[in-house]
């Protein structure tokens, strides 16, 4: 097990088949470059025979100066009715001009009989011919044995025969696929070990889906049983429940199993890589994701935070910085002075444990939390609070009022939302603006921006990334308090702010205001 | 391995510690009842010694008529400086009056030395005394051995001694915890097997966190090595990366490992249970979740969908209906006919499988779901839809418009919310009312009531019990769609309705309207 494990990324093929995931051609190129920098061995670009975008990617990727990764084109073995040299898919694979070609083949008798609807022997011939032909054209050929574990369970002899056909014909890696994703770790290990015994010289790969919720563990188990080639996607994107999540698999291989995969400085890019791919896929990053999630090393105040302070390893299985993540102490009701100090340090502020300002901020946080605020997900609002307590703050405008109205003329007509804002700028100018929106908060946001963007043009780059509403004490029903959480971004950076009020519009206004102030304090500082 | 596996649910304790998760007292009771119906053996209600809400839950849960589940209170062993009979936490555990008490204890020498800061022997004495005392008070005591796997790796003798101390003192189950969540399956299996060998008579439990992304597999591995008691949370909610996800663990145990856990008809409630808990936790259900996710059995058109048509098992590892889920062929296809028929039967309506009205309702449900509706938590809205399709509906008023405004005069003044409503009653009377409220929705609700209560006095008894807001497609920020869920009650009965719109006010109006119509249809029928 001391061999280097090679990572074969399928984010751009399997990952892109995930529901609601779409990468533009530019996104694809950027991901290829990032995966290369991160240190994966192979990047599967797609299936050129069935997807013209994949063919375009291969053409454009040829101009990339990849340091480490090789591009791989993906496609099926020849069609049962074509000669291999006339097969359109095989031709498309060759036209991709990649060093590596991965072809998928059936290894389960049921699949061959019911889906391909050909003889079992014919399938073996097709595999052998396809691999041999591609090898003869100078390609390194990897074989994805689809439904391998199902096939092995059905008829281990036939499943092995499919692998042997490819191996005889010159395939370089034999990839065992759990296409249905239904297997559990000890079964995966057992079968991998058995194949290892039958084909002792063939490098084995593993490609699993997450339908039983065990894809990461199944991948690790296959490696522990002798696989040296690992396929998966960043963040586990993929059809149905997704593929093996490389953002978990890679740190487990390297940090838990002690197997060399990438360089330590590359591993430290993992959190960045995961978030970037999420961003490009237009998927919200899952905060609870292992290793790379925003909450992966978050400790609520109180007992756990205390224990973490006493002994770092109390609730952290690895040093978060190894994967580019970090410890967060969330400031919440339970939290005391020490978590606030730690948080201030995160913001780069040295807060004195016994200073009056510390006491004052703690008092203020406690008051706000009693009102329903929670700073757990709103670092920017907390930082503003700290800055204000230290006097490092200034007013960018004075509100003289706002008004939001929502109107519907009759049962069937659409609803109109309009907002007006009246405010005074530091130079004495009074702005009075009006705007429409898709809802009251959108209208208010638009009117505020209209009033401020001429004076503070940097706000033009700011947009709202995420908007969350939580009703507190929901049982008070429409009289309950509302907490609004807003995530803003200026393209380079993102920040979270919070507002609480019985009135959802006021709560949204408070969070919008914090977002604007936070941005302006960062670009302009607190002194004029 | 033919023993029945007992499920110990910690959603209300560990789950509720997850970032941004909060359950109201009513939510907690509803979850207890649902877990009971689903067939879990134990429901951990919380830590009464540190959380007054948990104490309240135990008091209220005593009135529930649980068929299967036992309530368990959770807390620590006695403090090192208190006598066990004077310990405040132990007293709180007894006051919870649960049949089962679960106490957590340290089993890792490093933890004892650095976090508890007491002697190793003293820790063993504390465990033994605490268990013995609670047992003497007539409690069934389960021991959660915190950091057990870390402790076992450090000093297996000491980790075992901690278990033995509890076992000697009468603990009924010894639960091995991977508190840091950093272990991988074969290690978990190996340690569990070793403990099994040392303590052959003690029932062993498993409680793991998901920090390595292997919590489900780790749980299954422990069971394969002899554990018979399984802890976890619905949807894997919990601190950091969460706990073992019971929504994956349970079907794996039952369908993959062939171990009896719950009855088949209970297992078929799994998807519903998962979505209900997500809804109450105000968390977006993860579409890619194994077994219960909306995409778990979704096949995009083309090759896969074709293969699925030819051979159901091509891309489905289990029959989705076994867990209450189903196959989706296109990206978003809604409720199958059979679940709609089932639901109609629940409402006491006999719906003909092939009647045009059935087709029509299915079509309408599909359209609404594409718009972002979800009827999972809104039975009353679904029933209204069915009634309308059968013509069993009438109009109680015609809306001629509404208007809601929110106004703030300056930065410090309070915000005023006012609504006006214009509508026509069946007798031709036109009502035009105005009302204030604590927020725009409250004002709208008040104005609607004012217009209707003279004609329909039964509405006076109706009040809103709960109000939930979910932003769909949150990345569209304030332009995103909003789903509002309202629970209404008339004192005797309660019902849930839903509304979706880009505008939160409109979404709320739709849900309010359904609530009012539902009540009036029930009191007055659909014929005048």
Question: What is the fold's blueprint, element by element?
Answer:
The structure is a homodimer of 528-residue chains.
Chain A: E1 6-9, H1 25-38, E2 42-46, H2 52-61, E3 70-76, H3 88-95, E4 100-106, H4 109-116, H5 120-136, E5 140-146, H6 148-154, H7 156-168, E6 173-178, H8 185-198, E7 204-208, H9 215-224, E8 229-232, H10 246-256, H11 264-267, H12 270-281, E9 298-300, H13 303-310, E10 328-330, H14 337-346, H15 356-371, H16 379-389, E11 398-408, E12 415-424, E13 430-437, H17 440-452, E14 463-472, E15 481-489, E16 494-501, H18 504-524
Parallel strand pairs in A: 1-2, 1-8, 2-3, 3-4, 4-5, 5-6, 6-7, 7-8, 9-10
Antiparallel strand pairs in A: 11-12, 12-13, 14-15, 15-16
Helix pairs in contact in A: 1-2, 1-12, 5-7, 6-7, 8-9, 9-10, 15-16, 16-18, 17-18
């Amino acid at each position: 097990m001391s061999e280097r494990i090679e990572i074969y990324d399928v984010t751009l093929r399997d990952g892109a088949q995930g529901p609601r995931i779409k990468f533009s051609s530019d996104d694809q190129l950027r991901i290829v470059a990032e995966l290369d920098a991160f240190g994966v061995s192979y990047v599967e670009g797609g299936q050129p025979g069935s997807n013209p975008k994949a063919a375009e990617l291969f053409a454009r990727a040829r101009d990339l100066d990849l340091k480490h990764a090789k591009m791989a084109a993906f496609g099926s073995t020849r069609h049962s009715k074509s000669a291999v040299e006339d097969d359109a898919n095989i031709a498309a694979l060759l036209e991709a001009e990649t060093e590596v070609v991965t072809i998928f083949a059936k290894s389960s008798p049921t699949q061959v009989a019911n889906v391909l609807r050909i003889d079992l022997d014919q399938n073996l011939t097709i595999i052998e011919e396809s691999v041999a032909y591609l090898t003869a054209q100078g390609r390194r050929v990897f074989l994805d044995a689809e439904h391998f574990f199902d096939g092995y369970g059905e008829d281990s002899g036939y499943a092995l025969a499919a692998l042997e056909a490819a191996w005889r014909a010159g395939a370089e890696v034999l990839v065992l696929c759990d296409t249905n994703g239904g297997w559990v770790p000890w079964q995966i290990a057992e079968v991998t070990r058995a194949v290892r015994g039958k084909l002792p010289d063939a490098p084995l790969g593993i490609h699993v889906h997450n339908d039983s919720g065990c894809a990461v563990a199944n991948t690790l188990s296959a490696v522990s049983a002798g696989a040296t080639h690992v396929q998966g996607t960043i963040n586990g994107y993929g059809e149905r429940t997704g593929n093996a999540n490389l953002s978990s698999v890679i740190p487990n291989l390297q940090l838990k199993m002690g197997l060399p995969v990438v360089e330590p400085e590359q591993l430290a890019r993992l959190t960045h890589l995961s978030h970037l791919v999420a961003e490009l896929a237009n998927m919200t990053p899952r905060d609870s994701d292992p290793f790379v999630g925003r909450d992966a090393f978050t400790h609520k105040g109180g007992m756990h935070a205390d224990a973490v302070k006493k002994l770092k390893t109390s609730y952290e299985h690895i040093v978060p910085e190894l994967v580019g993540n970090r410890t967060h102490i969330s400031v919440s009701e339970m939290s005391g002075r020490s978590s606030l100090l730690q948080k201030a340090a995160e913001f780069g502020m040295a807060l004195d444990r016994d200073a009056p300002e510390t006491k004052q901020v703690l008092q203020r946080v406690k008051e706000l939390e009693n009102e329903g605020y929670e700073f757990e997900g709103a670092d920017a609002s907390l930082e503003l609070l700290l800055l204000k307590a230290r006097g490092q703050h200034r007013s960018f405008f004075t509100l003289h009022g706002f008004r939001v109205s929502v109107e519907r003329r009759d049962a069937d007509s659409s609803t109109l939302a309009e907002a007006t804002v009246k405010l005074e700028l530091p130079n004495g100018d009074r702005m009075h603006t009006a705007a429409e929106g898709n809802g009251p908060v959108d209208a208010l946001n638009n009117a505020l921006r209209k009033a401020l963007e001429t004076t503070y043009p940097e706000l033009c780059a700011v947009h709202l990334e995420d908007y969350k509403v939580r009703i507190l004490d929901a049982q008070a029903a429409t009289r309950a308090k509302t907490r609004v959480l807003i995530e803003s971004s200026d393209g380079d950076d993102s920040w979270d702010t919070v507002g609480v009020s019985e009135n959802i519009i006021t709560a949204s206004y408070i969070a919008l205001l914090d977002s604007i102030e936070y941005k302006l304090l960062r670009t302009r500082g607190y002194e004029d």
